[in-house]
Design goal:
This protein is an alpha+beta fold. It has six helices and five strands; from the N terminus they run E-E-E-E-H-E-H-H-H-H-H. A five-stranded mixed sheet has the order 4-3-2-1-5. The C terminus is likely disordered.
């Protein structure tokens, strides 16, 4: 019986995942299968592949033919390379130790590539996130500037208001302050203080002091006694 290693579709619309199965070559895609070897999920980055390595290698050695997509998956997981090394072992070109050493070196190289790819993806994701945050911050600043500009009066209006204030303030000062000073302060000084000094002080001195000095009574009494 001719067998094939192929994919069996599952999942919902737009997000499918697949089972890796061994089925009769004449069976429909979603029909009966002989054995399930693993799963393949292309929705992640990198794609998630879970496979039973030993069973898949046995089926490959038994003559099962993979489809093009399954061949790429098996090559990615190293099944085809291990089969190639086992062919060299059967021909006597390689020993068991050499086969294991070569396959281990290949796995290390593959793991390094996968790790590097994941690191690059993480760095790209972080850079995209930072760029998105910077763009959002810039957008907020532009919005705030637009709001400020909307509610801030133009420069011409501010200058006109300043000119109006400078033209009105001196008129008020000139009209009010000098009038108050001219009406109140000089009249109070002229009417009250000089009048009191002129009327009271000279009269007291001229009426009282000279009268007391002009009476010669004591000398006349002394002159009579002497005679």
């Amino acid at each position: 019986m001719a067998t094939k290693i192929r994919l069996q579709r599952h999942g919902k619309k737009g997000k499918p995942f697949y089972y890796i199965i061994v089925a009769d070559a004449r069976a429909p895609r979603d029909g009966r299968f002989i054995e399930r070897l693993g799963s393949y999920n292309p929705n992640t980055n990198p794609a998630t592949i879970d496979i039973n390595f030993d069973k898949t290698l046995d089926w490959m050695n038994s003559g099962a033919q993979p489809t093009d997509t399954c061949r790429a998956i098996l090559s990615y997981k190293g099944v085809l390379y291990k089969k190639h090394l086992q062919g060299g072992l059967k021909k006597g070109a390689l020993t068991e130790e050499q086969v294991e050493a070569k396959f281990a070196a290949w796995l290390d190289q593959k793991d390094n590539k996968i790790t590097g790819k994941k690191t690059d993806l993480v760095s790209v994701k972080d850079a995209a996130r930072k760029a998105a945050l910077a763009a959002e911050a810039k957008k907020k600043e532009e919005k705030a500037a637009a709001i400020t500009a909307k509610y801030t009066p133009p420069v011409e209006e501010v200058e006109e208001e300043a000119v109006a204030e400078t033209e009105e303030a001196p008129v008020a000062e000139v009209a009010e302050a000098p009038v108050a000073e001219a009406e109140e302060t000089p009249t109070a000084e002229v009417e009250e203080t000089p009048a009191a000094e002129v009327e009271e002080a000279p009269v007291a001195e001229t009426e009282e002091a000279p009268v007391a000095e002009a009476e010669p009574e004591a000398p006349a009494a002394e002159a009579d006694k002497a005679e």
